[in-house]
Amino acid sequence: MTYHDIKHNAEVNELLKKGNQNLGLLGFTDHSQAHCIHVAETAAHILKKFDYSAHDIELAKIAGYMHDIGNMINRCDHAQSGGILAFNILRSLDVNPKDIALIVGAIGHHDEKTAAPVSPIAAALILADKSDVRRSRVRNSKTVSTDIHDRVNYAVVDSELEVDGEDRVIILRLKIDTDICPVMEYFEIFLERMVLCKKSAARLDCSFELIINDTRLL
Q1: 8 A C-beta contact, residue 161 and residue 127
Q2: Mean pLDDT in the chain?
Q3: Is 203 left (phi over 0), alpha (psi -120 to 50) or beta?
Q4: What is the mean pLDDT of residues 184-200?
Q5: Using an 8 Å Cβ cutoff, are 75 and 160 in contact?
Q6: HEC assignment per residue over 92-153
Q7: From the centroid of its chain, how far is CA 167?
Q8: 178/104 Cα distance (integer angstroms)
Q9: 61: left (phi over 0), alpha (psi -120 to 50) or beta
Q10: CA 194/CA 196 separation, integer angstroms
Q11: Distance separating alpha carbons of residues 104 and 85, to the nearest angstrom
């Protein structure tokens, strides 16, 4: 069972699709297949830069792709419900129990309210997920003036996660249109996530930096 298999699994994709529809109705940013692919490939890129095994990289891609399926049930506790859903799907596919444990553990620990980098796979997933801040995730530009989450995402005109394997540092570089959103509002929403990214980077034995508009803030 590979990342390619999971990415084309009808059951997984239906759960992701319905979860994203639910979040849309609730006014949340985009959590579509595009977000899941981005998280999967970014998590893989992080582990590859730090010379993790091809097997660990594959598990991180699977966890990254499946991480938001719990939104099909409810946004509340979606990490834990998503982990349970993933467990059942992966077991039905006869995935190795050790691999299931690593994938499910990463999914179950990715939401900031209960998150923890319990493994390198979980750490890479957290970093990939929490760094996916971009204008294209805002579903309706009309909500930018009234919703701080949409405003912060919409204000990000450029985003890059730089992974330096030699110096062992992960840098999130953002360019924010301060006419749309002051930098302080970014911290109001995402400070907890950035602290979590710092902890996740430490789990990978590296440091984490946040640079906004060419100024280092973390």
Answers
A1: yes
A2: 95
A3: alpha
A4: 91
A5: no
A6: HCCCCHHHHHHHHHHHHCCCCCCCCCCCHHHHHHHHHHHCCCCHHHCCCHHHCCCCHHHHHH
A7: 23
A8: 38
A9: alpha
A10: 5
A11: 9
